[in-house]
Amino acid sequence: MKWLTSLTIAIGLACAPAGAQLTNTAPVAAQSNAAHQAQRDAFVSDLLRKMTTDEKIGQLRLISVGTDNPKHVIREMIRDGQVGAIFNTVTRQDIRAMQDQVMELSRLKIPLFFAYDVVHGHRTIFPIALELASSWDMNNIAKSARVSAYEATEDGLNMTWAPMVDITRDPRWGRVSEGFGEDTWLTSQIARVVVKAFQGEAPTDRHSLMTSVKHFALYGAVEGGRDYNTVDMSPQRMFQDYLPPYKAAIDAGSGGVMVALNSINGVPATANRWLLKELLRDQWKFQGITITDHGAIKELMKHGVASDPRDASRIALKSGIAMSMSDEYFVKYLPELVKSGAITVQELDEACRQVLNVKYDMGLFADPYRMLGAASSDPVDTNAESRLHRAEARDVAKRSLVLLKNRLNILPLKKSGVIAVVGPLADSKRDTMGSWSAAGLARQTVTVYRGIRTAVGNDATVFYAKGANVSNHKGIIDFLNQYEDAVQVDPRSPQAMIDEAVAVAKKSDVVVAVVGEAAGMAHEASSRSNIDLPQSQRDLIAALKATGKPLVLVLMNGRPLALVREDQQADALLETWFSGTEGGNAIADVLFGDYNPSGKLPMSFPRSVGQIPIYYNHLPSGRPYTPENPGKYTSHYYDEANGPLYPFGYGLSYTTFSVSDVSMSSPLMKRNGSVNASVTVTNTGKRAGETVVQLYLHDVVASISRPVKELRGYEKVMLQPGESRVISFTITEDDLKFYNAQMQQVVEPGKFEVFIGLDSQRVKQQSFTLL
Ligand code: BGC
Question: Which family does it belong to (predicted)?
Fold first, then answer.
């Protein structure tokens, strides 16, 4: 982890706007953890002694400001000590006004904390999480979180509902966009980095934003990819593949955990004592706060594990929930539950202590206004351009784009001639930001069309035509526009729009079509049963293809899509996910070769929806299918090829690389020892470029089947044309561990295969034997 040491300094310097300073040295950093905790425990115990039962219960309530809770109602709650924290309030003025009410009206003046979904940016929107993961660059990812923490804390926030580290192997699930992909090892690395970057050196840092890792647990495995559905999973898969990223975030010090909405093997996470007490507290030693997801306590009745609201409140608290998000059950039912003894005072105190502890850690008892300063220092314009971090956002985004195809090196484009920019997403500011775009403003976002225009200036002619609506399906548009005017529908007929785009294409030397999903199609509650491009866009692409002009597809989407047809039609395909505020400029940087793409997919792209779940680290089958010798009774679909269209770890560059055979430091590894596996990577093309060298391992024979390949290391390297570099990986027993049938974490001796390559499929192979 050598980069971590230089991370804070590098990012601190990189993202501080003129005149501002990122303070990373903590007032409490000098104190030992133990001393800090002892002081905190004494303070909180003293406070608990002064609190009434109702005041303690009030601390467990987290509410969102909005129509359900207008400001005058919140004022009353604050006066009566009936609220512990607020989310969705994002300006210093609003936050200060509420903290003022606490200080003026409430008996004990216990400060509120303020939270928000700072998921991939705050005012400046960075690429979505899946795109950040595509960079395979921890400094890049950390930079996005550091800047987001800086901006959020400058607005007075204390906590974020992030990172979302749910492993998923199902692109039908809309929340794929919020996570870091299908790989446990990579996601765990990222989880660690993001938590540290958000939280900084110590919680009392001026720009430390406490994290609340989510959604604990296993939310990414909802059956059928349908949001809020059930999860049923073997213990091996749970511990081996799905739980490690949460553990990594907790080990990195995440102050909070947001509990998932799904059930796990029949028990909703919110009512899951095993999950929240035995695993999280007893085994993992988590000491922070557990917060429900939105309205989850109420949902215990719908899950069929609580008979009424009182029962739901009792079960949630007893199972290990401390704070309830967006429902009034705790405040309504806990008083009587405590009075009757169904909930003990000790249980209530334990929950309340969690809330008070994080407030103490945030430094709020020392100074409730520490994130706010004096009103006179408030920004005159919260959305001022000067508050954005455009350079950082552009840099992070360009490093995260993935080149999927580049026939005859059609890319990079020249900044001359005539370029047609078409497609429903080409000039859509809202969609370029992606879902969960926090306090980002569409109007401050650069679209691909704008980015291209700026890049070419007067050196090329750029034509624009929308070409199609995102979808012609009324039901889908109504769904997307249900809560906000998210998708603008062009009233012209589909044919009229296509005709206009074709006319523009015919006048041009090259067509850049920006197609994919509207941001709302890859979001919470946005599961799809079909992962093709919408038909309106397929029709547009077919018409553009028929013009015979070179066709570059710029894809904007929040999940792997099924792109077999587009792969055949397009000359080039650039996966840009949802790239945020500076998306259009970053995409132009890559399209014109000002930056040579270096991203790699963190999720397999299936050929069709029927292949799901499809993931590279699957177990072997007893009847494997081999294309060279296909047998009828082998594991395959008779109407679809096995394997993805684009594998995990895949991504092209404008240069080419070769990878030598793998050489091992020894064919044998001693117990508790290590071996090195190395390759020489050479830039065989004409441009400088980066690639990601990936190490995968396979335990050939073990007491249970082990995945055919598992990522255990990678290095992103920059090479000049003709330059070679030896990349060496040290393999230790830690890399070989797994849970056996008795759920013991073991390393078993025997043969291990070693694969090194530039994606999960094109690899060079070697082996060693663990003695
Ligand atoms: C989502 C969470 C989110 C919360 C607050 C819920 O519906 O599942 O991920 O943090 O809302 O906005």
Answer: Belongs to the glycosyl hydrolase 3 family.
Residues 133 and 222 in one domain: yes
Which amino acid would we find at residue 307? S
CATH number at residue 728: 2.60.40.10
Please choose from 86, 117, 297 the residue to mutate so as to test ligand 1's pocket, defined by most ligand atoms within 8 A of CB. Answer: 117
Whose tokens are 């589909």? That residue is: 494
- 211 Cα: distance to centroid of ligand 1 (angstroms): 14
Cα–Cα dist 622/480, whole Å: 44
214 lines ligand 1 (CB under 6 A): yes
pLDDT of 629: 87
pLDDT in tens, 420-439: 999 999 999 999 999 999 99
**138-154 and 184-199 helices, crossing angle to 10°:** 40
Q: For residue 279, how far is its CA from the centre of ligand 1 (angstroms)?
A: 23
The candidate with the shortest Cα–Cα distance to 678, out of 616, 726, 721, is: 726
Beta strands in 520-644 (DSSP E): 551-556, 572-575
Atom of ligand 1 at shortest distance to CA of 161?
Answer: 10
Cβ-Cβ contacts under 8 Å for 599 (sequence gap 6 or more)? 131, 134, 135, 136, 399, 400, 401, 402, 403, 575, 651
Partners of residue 403 on adjacent β-strands: 574, 652
With a cut of 70, list the residues of the chain below it in pLDDT: 1-31
Position 659 scores a pLDDT of 98
Residue 396 lies in a domain: no
| 8 Å CB contact between 429 and 442 | yes
Q: pTM value?
A: 0.95
Ligand 1 centroid distance, CA of 664 (Å): 47
Residue 203 has a pLDDT of 86
Task: Give residue 760's domain range.
Answer: 657-770
Residue type at 605?
F
Q: Is there an atom of ligand 1 within 6 Å of 299 CB?
A: no
For 129, counting Cβ atoms within 10 Å of its Cβ (0-12 exposed, 13-18 middle, 19+ buried), the class is buried
